[in-house]
Amino acid sequence: MKIYSLASSFIGGIMSFVLWQAGYLSQVEFLLTLSMCGFLPVILFLIGNTEPFIEKLLLMYPIFMLSVIGAFEFPWMSVLWLVYSFGLFLAGCFRMVQRGFFYIEETVLDMALIYLPLGAVWFVVYSFTLNY
Amino acid sequence: MIALLTAVHFHYSTLIVPVFLGLLGRAVKETRKLPRWYTPVASLFIVSPLLVAVGITYSKMIEIASVSLYVGCLYLFSIAAIMKFRTNWWIVASAAVLLFTMSLSFLYAIDMVAIPEMIQYHGWINGIGFALIGLIGYFKENPQTHFSISSSSFSKIKGEKRIGVDFFNRHG
Question: How far is B13 from B17, CA to CA, in rounded Å?
Answer without folding.
Answer: 5
